[in-house]
Amino acid sequence: MSMRSLRFRGVLLVLACSVLITAAATAQSWYAAGGFGPIASTGGRLGSSTIMGAIGYQANGGPGIRIAGADQLSRFWFTGDLTWQFADRGHQVIPYALLGGGVALSWSDSPGALDLGGGVLFQMGRRVCAFAEARMATLLGSPSTDATGTFIPITLGLRVSP
What we know:
This protein is α+β, with helices and mostly antiparallel strands.
């Protein structure tokens, strides 16, 4: 390989990295979200309700991460979720998926928890989105007999980016 070819490849690599870093810096954003809604049991009944809040960091049309807290079934759920948006912020409707784990805190015990779900963001302005989200939440086990199970919190809310 000639010296000229190596230099050319080096310049291309530096330019490509510069473009990717610039695109990544402008395409990501912090956000805060909050919402409420019903909880459906795996038997199909609507039961209790949920109140949820989250902060996160999301790439434009790709991976992200969030920390969420929710008051569900007399427990405070604290989870860390990986997220993936299937469209960029230029679209009016942005579907997303999430997968996470954490703990479900109560006065008597604190079993582990998993959640898997998805939702849709509805662009309402440059920095504000409405969202609808459903997660399948599972308690991983607990000494108390009522602490195991799977249910589906359905959350409607707002997400705001600075």
